[in-house]
Amino acid sequence: MTNKLKVTTIGNSTGVIIPKELLEKLRVSKGDTLFVVETSNGIELTPYNPEFANQMELAEKVMREDRDVLKKLAE
Description:
Radius of gyration: 19 Å
Helix content: 40-55%
Mean pLDDT: 86
Low-confidence stretches: none
Number of strands: 4
Largest sheet: 2 strands, antiparallel
Structural class: alpha+beta
Strand content: 15-25%
């Protein structure tokens, strides 16, 4: 899929208008936050915070490795 977005003036800022169909595919709407991630293939626009996802992976790793300690602390 290829979409062409035009850079335009929006108030005192510069931005792009994202078509409704693309917003639906991203599962976002007005007021939601999008993250711009630089990848080896270029720029990725995503509704998911990659830093938060990385933090969650680390937390899950700690919970798996230290399950017994965490269980004792919860008692």
